[in-house]
Amino acid sequence: MNERDLTYFCKLIELGSYTKTARFFEVTQPTISAAVKRLAHQYGDPLITQENRKSKLALTTAGMILYEKGLNLINDLKSLNYDVGHANDKKIRIAFSGIAGGFYMPDIVLAFYQAGIASMLDPTFIRSSSALKDLSAGKVDVAIYSWNVPFNDPKYYLRTLEVTDFVIICRADSPLAKLDNIAVDQLHDFEFIARDREYLTTEALLETCHKEDFAPNIIYTANTLELMISLVQRGMGVAFILESRIRDVAGIAVVHIRPSQRMYSYSQIAMRKSFIPNKYQRKGIEILRNFKAGESPRE
Question: What is the pTM of this model?
Answer without folding.
Answer: 0.65
